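All the exercises in this workshop are built on plain-text protein records. Instead of coordinates, the fold is spelled out as a row of discrete tokens. Once this layout is familiar, the rest of the handout is easier to follow. The record below serves as our worked example for the rest of this section.
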Amino acid sequence: MRGAPPAPPAGVTYEQDGPLLRIVGQFRGFVSGPRDLGVDGDALDRLIARQRDFFAGRGEAVEWKTRAHDIPADLTDRLRAAGFVPEERETVLVGRAADMAGHAPALPDGVTLRRVTADADMRRIAAMESAVWEDDWNWLAEDLIGRVAAAPDEIAVYVAEADGEVVCAAWLAFRAGTGFASLWGGSTLAAWRRKGIYRALVAERARLAAARDVTYLHVDASDDSAPILRRLGFHAVTTTTPYVWSPPAG
């Protein structure tokens, strides 16, 4: 859960600041640490402020990824005090890839699944996500393009299409040497929800993971996705909440 892909996209760099991994060059900064940061009190406040100020100097937002079992227990209080704001909590789920591969529902008439690698398809995915979330998700296209170019064997991107339109998209990230792969994405246009498309993309990615001898799948699931995944046999292990600091408007 806490590492970073071994082959970062072009323009993305990894830096270590004490116990923290800092990722620079994405659409916003990213910070992650071990379960026990090994610092507390004033030292922790200084560590948090250093991350905020680093990205403030770049004029960028930064996400600090937290988990419910992180230590020290007052980490999130200190993040709030430093100006970080929590986004929606997600449930961390784990399931066996081989089990999930057998849960493929029939797709609606006219819907097809396809693995994609072309830049144009990544931009179509970003346009679909922008429509779903009513926000500008163009950064996602550049993120996926960069990740596919840097390490094509570490990511598999899929779309569900109907009449040439991307109606859902999801991707699978491999982490060599761990026995785990991670499921990401899965947003679906409103008119195409509750038709089995999300579950079909879970099964499709699970089949690829199982074929590559991956034992487990990991998901940071929204409240919408978590019940579906539990019904498929995933098990909750903890929760995760991103804390985000953004530069002042204007």
Remarks:
- The mean pLDDT is 96.
